[in-house]
Amino acid sequence: MARRRRIAAGTALVILVLLAVAGWWAWVRVTGPAAHFKADSAVLFIPRGADLDVVVDSLQRIGAIQDETAFRWLCDRKKYTTNVKPGRYRIPDGMSMNALVNKLRSGEQEPVRVTFNGIRRLPELAGKLGRVLEPDSLAFVRVLLDGGTQRKAGYTPETFIAAFVPNTYEFWWTTTPEQFLERMRKEHARFWSAERKAKAAELDLSPVEVVTLASIVQAETVKRTDAPRIAGVYLNRLRIGMPLQADPTLKFALGLDSISRVLNADKEVVSPYNTYKNLGLPPGPINMPETSMIDAVLDAEGHDYLYFCARADLSGYSDFSRSYEQHLVNARKYQRALNQRGIFR
Fold this sequence. Notes:
With 345 residues, the chain is mainly α. It has helices at 2-31, 52-62, 68-77, 97-106, 122-132, 137-144, 147-152, 177-191, 194-202, 207-220, 227-240, 247-254, 291-298, 324-340, and strands at residues 41-46, 87-92, 112-116, 167-171, 307-310, 318-321.
């Protein structure tokens, strides 16, 4: 009898030890390092509508889990199986399975940094967004070029590009085109403060008109120090009813942004963007000007210059003049410099 008790006690002890070892093993599998990457971290993308199978497949592909059965068991215990949240998740090397499930269950995404400046057309913006956010560029193009969307926002097809303020922003990877537009609406309202609106009013220009002029200034110079002075030239022309005679608007009308030289024949193009033929500002911006160019217009230099021309040294700076006669002298120097370098278009 005593022998049987000893056997039973020994068996129970062995079972307890086995259970303890199994528990310890399971605890290690769940809480110990599970993700193994060559780099410090890896990025997991979970698209909208994804289920647990998609998540598991993606995690295995990047090496974030080694034991699928244990992972699925843990997901079920933590009620993540039916609560998959889409997004872009950064997973550090060595992250435990438990921490991973907690991260995915909470929807702890890493935002995407998006910088856009130097944009010339809205499809270009759509392409940039489509490369870094979940919706593709076509989805963004459809919304950005939709007339109803533009009218609802208070713009025309020609002016809608003025609704966007170039900068670096953070978005969730899952941001939809509609959510993007709503964010841009708020950023636009933030940028166009009461102070900036007051400065625009002093120039007798609306914010859209300021952006339109800023887009011309940006296309005219790469030198920020010249921008307020060039803006002043155009404002002087507007005040006296003189055509802007802005070469960048001709390039826009002709669809030839890359040309270095405007010919006299180009000035005959029939287009509302031909500021040699039409008085005042063109129908809308010819690009998406940087905020520094918008401020260059709002803080334009006060002077009596009516003309400017790129310097003959091709440094990017401009020479300014009050009289047309002096302007012709400067223009001929610049033209000779282009000829000497074989730049005829």
